[in-house]
Amino acid sequence: MSKQPIPLEQLLVHLPLFKDLSPEKLALVVADGLLEVNAPRGSVLYRRGEPCRGLHIVVWGEVKCTFETRDGGEKVLEVARAGQCLADVVSFVDKPHLVTAEALTDSKLVYMPKAKVLAEMERFPEVARAMVGVLSSRLVDLVSELENCTLRTGKQRVIRYILKHLPQHAAGTQKAVFLPAKKSIIASQLNLTHEHFSRILRDLATAGLIDVRGRQIMISDIATLQARL
C-alpha cells in the first residue's frame, strides 16, 4: 500500500520560518516556487564552492555540513535536523556554498530559491522576523562553538556536549543521553579525533561519571559531571 503524500502546508506549518504565518498566508507561500526534496542517505545536496541559488529547510532527517581539511580529512561543522535551514547565510550574499551538505539519513527538505526567500520576507514581516531570528541564532551558535574549541579542553568539550543533550528537566539523578550521531561525526564537530573522543569517554566511564552503552550514555550524577566543566 503506497503512502499518501503529505500536503506541503502540513510540512511547513511547524517549521520556525513559517510557524507564525496564518493558514491563509502559508497557502500563498506554498502556491509557487517551493520544491520538495527527498534526499536518500548519502546523497549530496550541494558541494562547497558551487553557486548558492537558494536555501534548504530540513523537514525531517539529518544533513551534515562539512568541508575538506588540508590533509584530505573531513571536518563536520554541524548536523542539521528538523526545522533548521541550510545555506541561510550565503543566500543573502553573492557567495558560493561554504560547505558540502550530505544527507546522513533518508531526509525530506523544502527548497526555496533565493528570489522566493527575498520575496516572502518582503511580503510577510513574520517571515522576515523569523529569518532574523534564524541568522541571530546562527551567530550565537558560531560564537559558542568558537569559544568551546579555543577555551575548553577536549574533556570539557565532551562533557558539555553530553550535558547539552540531556532530556529537558533532567537533574540530580541518573539520566540517559542518546548521542544523536555517530561518534566519528560528533568528534569532528568537537574538533577531536575519533580516537581522542573515544578515549575521553573511557576516562569518564573509568571515573564512574558515565556508563557508555553504544550510543546511549548513562550519567551517574549530573551535578558531579557539571562540576568537571
Low-confidence stretches: none
How much of the sequence lies in strands comes to 15-25%
> How many helical stretches?
8
Topology as a string of helices (H) and strands (E): HHEEEEEEEEHHHEHHEEH
What is the highest CATH level, the class of the largest domain? Mainly Beta
On the 0 to 100 scale, the average pLDDT is: 90
Class per helix and strand makeup: alpha+beta
Number of strands: 11
- Looking at CATH, which topology of the largest domain would you report? Jelly Rolls
Task: Please explain how this structure is put together.
The protein has about 230 residues and is α+β, with helices and mostly antiparallel strands. It folds into two domains: about 10-150, Jelly Rolls, CATH 2.60.120.10; about 155-225, Arc Repressor Mutant, subunit A (Orthogonal Bundle). It is about 40% helix and about 25% strand. It has helices at about 10, 25-30, 115-125, 125-150, 155-165, 185-190, 195-205, 220-225, and strands at about 35-40, 45, 55-60, 65-70, 75-80, 85, 100-105, 105-115, 175-180, 210-215, 215-220. It has a four-stranded antiparallel sheet. Strands 2-7-4-5 form a four-stranded antiparallel sheet. A three-stranded antiparallel sheet has the order 9-11-10. About 25% of the residues are buried. The model has no long low-confidence stretch (mean pLDDT about 90).
